[in-house]
Amino acid sequence: MVKNIHRSKSFLEKISKIVPGGANSNVRTRNSIAVSGGEGALLFDLDGNRYIDYILGFGSVILGHGNETVNQFVYQSIKKGASFAFTTESEYRVCKKIVEVSPSVEMVRLCNSGSEAAITAFRIAKTVTGGSVAIKIQGDYNGGFDILAHDVPGVDGDNLDQGPFPIGTGFYKDVKKSIITIPFNDINLLENILSSKKGEIAVVFMEPILGNVAAIMPNLDYLKAVRDMCTHYGVILVFDEVKTGFRVGLQGAQGLFGINSDLTMYGKALANGFPIAAIGGKKELMELVRPGKVFHCGTYYGNLASTSAAEMVLSILSESDYTSLFRKGEKLAQGICDRLMQVGILSQWNGIGSMFGITIGDSKPIDYKTWWKNTDRKLWVNISEIMRNYGILSDDFIGLFFLSFAHTDEHIEETLKIFEET
Ligand SMILES: Cc1ncc(COP(=O)(O)O)c(C=O)c1O
To answer: Which residues lie across from 401 on neighbouring strands?
Structure first.
């Protein structure tokens, strides 16, 4: 049981005086605690409370907090410096490993965040197709880039037809001319748009599992049809694997479903929380990224701290037993649903063991709208708040749980016991 959060509270008040919202990211302004650090599957707040963490740095921390092997490797590497304005062997090793394990990536460029990977993906797609419009899935979050930051989680799911709705203010004028948002798992609408707007559409961005809405799964026939349709209409298909990459298997969602994209965005689990992301894909597309063509540039892209972290993470993940990770996650997911059922609350779980979402209601959502309309989102907010007070951290809005390789069966049992008792 969390005893008190006085220190967290007064710290958040103090930092709010100099940092807007008391956090360096808008999503984090909702937080009621400040953190002193983590250890494996656990997180500790400023008041010394212990939490079992299922948020895991928004899914980045696949090996657990403070992984000693990764940290030691990073430390040894950066003794020689962190940022050089020259290419390092570490960059080569990371990129080589990404190419080796990714089903569709022949060449790759590194950057610092998923948002930056999306910007480069869009530029490549526009350059190669001559189109200027992006299609994205309602409820996907493909990063903060003006054009893509529409109809993301949090927008009113009742009025999506009148969208797209931006996530905030200050975007480029006329930005809506460059974005069309469509529901997940709806092939007919996609086909209508692609056929009626031939030559205008450059790219389809898609999280192959809706990681930003309770891990809603794709219908496999839908995913195959999206692939075929993009090929047929000459539109670039980008799988945003920032959440699924290296998490739903070493080969990500593409390995899981056996369906490849033209370009792939990676981030998060790639370096267990160190800032790195990647955009990769077919050789003929990636070769467009060069001086005078597609712009992709950043002072810290390929910095040694992040690349050495990624090197070690990928090496550990290559030897890791995902089956046991999935088994633990499924046990937790099913266990939560069973315990909710015991008190008369009907719920579902979506996704797979290392990344699943709980939705309260009697049917599985298939897209953002059905999640918004048919699930009791408020009840989930209440449940997750109670859990937080008992030392279990999970997403309080989209119902998402991440698991790391540091979570043990004991952590799962402790979590389920708390669910049962409260
Ligand atoms: C699926 C997905 N794509 C892209 C991003 C953006 O990544 P970043 O926050 O590193 O810019 C996120 C962030 O949560 C994400 O979940």
So the answer is: 356
